[in-house]
Design goal:
Length: about 220
């Protein structure tokens, strides 16, 4: 009787041990799968910001041609409304010329508060953009070369489309040149807009006031 009981107990212990080992293995597998899924979530590449979002800061920046209203609630006699000149400056009472282009309205407000700090009792100045427009020029192998006026941020390809589009028989869309004057120096940037037209590139090149877009002609061999 004792030997039978011992045998049954031994079999029970073996079965229990087998179940325990099986449970541990299953638990390990489930844990490993959970870690793998978690790692996959953590290492997934983050999506790049759309070009439009990246350029939104550009759209909020004051530029040449913008008409701004500057209000002094505590000294309304200083209120003024004027365009930002081609040199990027405006002229204000007391402080004279102020560089406005390249700043956001909020940044210009802070700059003016500092300049007028000893002149104002009420430390409050507001800058409002009344209108925003600028000119660019499109030349070369396009349908209607000439100047283009825009009231919103504009890309090189958009300016060319405003000029009637490329002259398909002549235009070399792989070597479009944007000529820009910055700080008294001329800077040329070559764009391959064929890639944009074919949907192979979506990075936008935004224009600045007075940019010149030149579309060259293809080489002809006779």
């Amino acid at each position: 009787m004792n030997s039978g009981s011992n045998s049954e107990q031994s079999d029970g212990i073996s079965a229990t041990g087998g179940l325990l080992r099986a449970g541990l293995v299953c638990g390990a597998i489930i844990c490993a799968l959970g870690l793998a899924l978690l790692a996959g979530c953590n290492t997934a590449p983050s999506a790049a910001l759309p070009t439009q979002a990246a350029e939104s800061t550009e759209a909020q920046t004051l530029r040449e041609g913008d008409v701004v209203k500057i209000a002094f609630p505590g000294a309304p006699n200083l209120d003024t409304q004027q365009p930002i000149r081609r040199d990027g400056r405006i002229t204000l009472s007391i402080v004279g010329e102020v560089m406005a282009a390249g700043l956001t309205p909020a940044a210009l407000e802070r700059d003016l508060l500092q300049r007028y700090s000893t002149q104002l009792v009420s430390k409050e100045i507001t800058v409002t953009v009344i209108s925003s427009s600028f000119l660019v020029y499109v030349s070369g192998a396009v349908i209607h070369p000439g100047k283009i006026e825009s009231t919103h941020p504009m890309t090189a390809i958009e300016a060319i489309m405003e000029a009637g589009g490329f002259d398909s028989a002549k235009a070399d869309t792989t070597a479009v040149v944007v000529i820009r004057n910055e700080g008294g120096q001329t800077k040329n940037t070559t764009l391959n807009l064929k890639l944009v037209l074919e949907g192979k590139q979506n990075r936008a090149f935004f224009l600045k006031p007075s940019d010149i877009i030149y579309v060259p002609e293809k080489f002809s061999w006779f």
